[in-house]
Amino acid sequence: MSSHAPKLEERAPTLAAARRLKMARSAHAYVRGNTEKFYAWLETASDRDLPQGPPVWICGDCHLGNLGPVANAKGQVGIQIRDLDQTVIGNPAHDLIRLSLSLATAARGSDLPGVTTAKMLEEIMAGYQAALAGESDADDEAKPRSVRLVLKRALGRRWRHLAEERIQDVRPRIPLGRKFWKLEAGERDEIAALFEQEAIRDMVTGLHQRDDDAAIEVLDAAYWMKGCSSLGRLRYAVLLQVGKADSAGLSTYALIDIKEAVKSAAPRAPDARMPRNNAERVVAGARALSPYLGRRMRAASLQGRQVFLRELMPQDLKIEIDQLSREEAMLAARYLAGVVGRAHGRQMDESTRTRWRDELGRRWTKNLDAPFWLWGSVVDLIALNEVAYLEHCRRYALEPTR
């Protein structure tokens, strides 16, 4: 794509083309970018006899890239779910299947044998149930190398790292180009007005070492071409100055991500009471599943659409695993399932957690320490996505030259 920023009416086709390209790059990228296909499969999976867990907030798109280090308002860092666009009150088994599919696809991309995938599912169940039982994840030896490395990196990051990574500059501006596009005048005015709202001001000044009455100035803003499944929705990056420069002439800057919230593809539990506003739903789910992140988010309206805002922190990173060894695959499966188990379990009382663990323990095969409903679901989904991915690549290859 050239550095020429598309006009407002050109954005949709440009973003659609970028999404198709991203999803054609690998089967793993295709799975990450196609949540709708997962839930379309789920509608036909009633004969799989999936366990019906207690209705709690679930991620709804619980793949590998949606977990990672997240900082809270005081700068403390933990591994939590970091993308909640699809969150609903639903069946926690859906998150387990989605995570299992993501890890199984990563294993296939790393040329690991099928028996490793089977063992990974055993570890997923073990890690998830251990988390429901209240076992801690504090032991560094239990963390996969990829997690230890990303945590160490997160703890050492400061504003300049975020600026250089996200906007390729530490100066107070957003460089326009391939990722960041120039705004129309009306867009810029609406964004500036957002930060005059008290709830949004509280989000920005709520981080430690900031004064509650600090002045907030919008220094720059741009349309942000980012993500995969979210490409095509409203997405903005906003650079703020918070307060005045200190005695050394240094200012406090904040980088805000504004993202459109749309209806979730994940099925909600019958009679579940959730906010009807999609942005408020995302914020509520984030606060339940990922408290560090959720308390840094706010819902708002922009251009007549529902959006949510969060300040990007230098410590917020995704777990990137390009190649899995067998040992790493086992540790990653157990550990990440534990992260999800803790997110689900903190919403349940002790008796509910116990009943859910018992339900998960039913219908195990004699030769595999993972239930058939999980193994069969992952096998079905891998086959379905492999065909769909190759068909996507075929259609992409036949598109007119861009």
Count the strands?
10
Strand-residue fraction? Answer: 5-15%
The major beta sheet can be summarized as: 6 strands, antiparallel
Percent range for helical residues? 40-55%
Q: Regions with pLDDT < 50 over 5+ consecutive residues?
A: none
Shape: globular
- Spatial arrangement of strands, main beta sheet: 5-6-7-8-10-9
Structural class label: alpha+beta
Tally the helices: what do you get?
Answer: 14
What sequence of helices (H) and strands (E) makes up the elements? HHHEEEEHHHHEHHEEEHHEEHHH
Radius of gyration: 21 Å
Summarize model confidence as the mean pLDDT: 84
Report how far the terminal alpha carbons are from each other: 9 Å
Name a few traits of the molecule:
402 residues, alpha+beta, globular
How would you summarize this macromolecular structure in one to three sentences?
Helix content is 44%, strand content 14%. It contains 14 helices and 10 strands. It has helices spanning 11-24, 27-32, 35-43, 92-109, 114-132, 145-155, 159-166, 185-194, 198-205, 278-289, 291-294, 326-345, 350-360, 372-398, and strands at 56-58, 67-71, 77-81, 88-90, 180-181, 216-224, 235-242, 252-260, 297-302, 305-312.
